[in-house]
Amino acid sequence: MSDTIESILQEERLFNPPTEFSERAYVRSGREYEQLYSRAASNPEKFWGELAEQELHWFKKWDRVLDWQPPFAQWFVGGQLNISHNCLDRHLHSWRRNKAAIIWEGEPGDSRVITYGELHREVCQFANALKSLGVQKGDRVAIYLPMIPEAAIAMLACARIGAPHSVVFGGFSAEALRDRLVDAEAKLVITADGGFRKDKAIALKQEVDKALEHGAPSVENVIVVQRTKADVTMTAGRDYWWHELKPQQSAHCPAEPMDSEDMLFILYTSGSTGKPKGVVHTTGGYNLYTHMTTKWIFDLKDTDVYWCTADVGWITGHSYIVYGPLSNGATTVMYEGVPRPSNPGCFWDVIEKYGVNIFYTAPTAIRAFIRMGEAIPNARDLSSLRLLGTVGEPINPEAWMWYHRVIGGGKCPIVDTWWQTETGGIMLTPLPGAIPTKPGSCTRPFPGIVADIVDLDGNPVESGQGGFLVIKQPWPSMIRDVYGDTDRFRFTYWEHIQPKEGQYLYFAGDGARRDADGYFWVMGRVDDVINVSGHRLGTMEIESALVSHPLVAEAAVVGRPDELTGEAIFAFVSLEGNTEANEDLKKELVKHVTAEIGAIARPAEIRFTDVLPKTRSGKIMRRLLRSLASGQEISGDTSTLEDRTVLDKLREG
Ligand code: PRX
């Protein structure tokens, strides 16, 4: 990365929202933002209660807006609603019935436009298909699909009948899928024969078969969408084709009234220790918060074509491709492909083809576009764009400037949105018509979010100083639990920072600072989580994958800075006995990790070593490994190191 931390800290450029943007925005000025913010802060229950009433449909009104028994929050207690109803049925009584809900573009160039009326019909039929296989309210359903409309249809159908979904990113391997199926005790899996990615057909059903062979006893049925027409093995009585099962079903399926706190979905994410955590989100608060953030942050209007390039396998896809946009009655674009050698400009083609107005992507994609050269986007008409967004990792100011100039034509505000799987929705962000932006800063908290930067005792640090990013008050879409592991929920998020008076602070795992204008600058993870291309990976997860190889005795994984992906995976590996360390074994280990987790966990570099640097109590000193991996001099205290000669050996590598 060309920008050093120092240059980020000295960033002083300020971009005011263009007047023509502010004039028609939902939130039009800094003053309006301040008013909203203080209204929410002074009486959060009134603020959220009024919005819930105005913006969502409820089958039954709540008795209490918030019940906060730290760290357990319940929002809209006693209220009943259904997010699928809010995303579909309520739009059918207006002109939106015939409006495009989803514009989908497949990688090979096929496409579909699905109106709200059609989407409602598809969702109802598929919901009945799930019921026909015995899926009931409360049963968990896994979704392992490529970026095709059926992914959104499946999610909405699960929500409609009250079966929590667990979407597993299609890039995860059979092993990773199996772990998630077992943890969630999924009853049914929805998959496809495959999907198209980088001009290749990727097999998915085959991975499901492998996962089930290795043991996921809770799974009773598999529904398979035909996408690539690859040969697949269908097990009689267990596996059903989507296109055979769904058309037989009635298109009448009333949405199940759900309690506001009924579980909507589980989504697995990496932590600093052990296996991935099943982050639990519930219905009412999540529906409201993703609805409001989508509306105000993306300034979403009925005439907009909105496109978020994430995959539905991540929280960004859940909140800002499916639920937030559809709850607002917006047109949301879904694209199956990614930029690839045969079409590096495919994103700009999609923008030109559909006249996309709002475009939301990741810094790693922007850095890849910079490398490819601006001639590619310059050859397309991007004049429809009016707002840009980024998410997933800190954006370096120069990438921000390029995005602003080349893609936004210097006229589009950029919303740099900081949030997490656990927060459910965007927490720190500019409101594009109201808040001047600074390249590299996610600026200010969304109304209702009380964020701070503190030390380990929970004391706020001075402006300009680094510290831990925390959230001090509950918010509607906050994580409710780690599925099946409430102790882990408490320990990970609520016990790391220990304020004196027993106050509970949500700890996000990120380091940040705040400047003199109150703007937040997120610096990255402060735990053992690596952020590769905006994807979170736990170092322990990769280490366990490595040591599950019979020739590996021990492994330590760290992140090292990478110009393109933000961070890259660097693994130090010591081998069993007299195993010969060679290039072939490195390749084999890379393949092994890919099979255990998926291609996103592929180590960029493996260094064989006899020993790892450890403290006298046997703890691996990752700080030293991080310095070594990034080619820096080792600084700081090394006196706790058990054997000082280890460092020289590691340097020689
Ligand atoms: O480190 C932060 C980084 O991504 C982490 C959350 O990852 P995940 O749960 O996978 O969700 C990604 C999409 C919401 C955070 O703890 N992160 C996310 N957005 C930003 C960011 N870091 C800096 N700036 C951002 N805008």
**Class based on secondary structure composition and strand pairing:** alpha/beta
Name of the CATH superfamily of the domain at 528-652: ANL, C-terminal domain
Helix content: 25-40%
Number of strands: 30
Low-confidence stretches: none
Biggest sheet details: 8 strands, mixed
Our estimate of the beta-strand percent is 15-25%
Q: What is the residue-mean pLDDT, rounded to a whole number?
A: 94
Count of alpha/pi helices = 21
CATH architecture classification name of the domain at 528-652: 2-Layer Sandwich
CA(first)-CA(last) distance: 24 Å
User: Which ligands, by name, code or SMILES, are bound?
Assistant: adenosine-5'-monophosphate-propyl ester
CATH-assigned fold name of the domain at 528-652 = GMP Synthetase, Chain A, domain 3
CATH class of the domain at 528-652: Alpha Beta
Q: Give the spatial strand order of the biggest sheet.
A: 12-11-8-6-7-14-15-23
Bulk shape: globular
- Radius of gyration of CA atoms, rounded to a whole number: 24 Å
What would you note in describing this structure?
With 653 residues, this protein is α/β, with parallel strands linked by helices. It has a domain at 528-652: 2-Layer Sandwich (GMP Synthetase, Chain A, domain 3), CATH 3.30.300.30. It is 31% helix and 23% strand. It contains 21 helices and 30 strands. Helix 11 crosses helix 12 (315-327). The two termini are 24 Å apart. The model has no long low-confidence stretch (mean pLDDT 94). Bound molecules: adenosine-5'-monophosphate-propyl ester. The modification N6-acetyllysine is found at residue 619. Residues 96-475 form the AMP-dependent synthetase/ligase domain. ATP binds at residues 392-394, 416-421, 510, 525, 536.
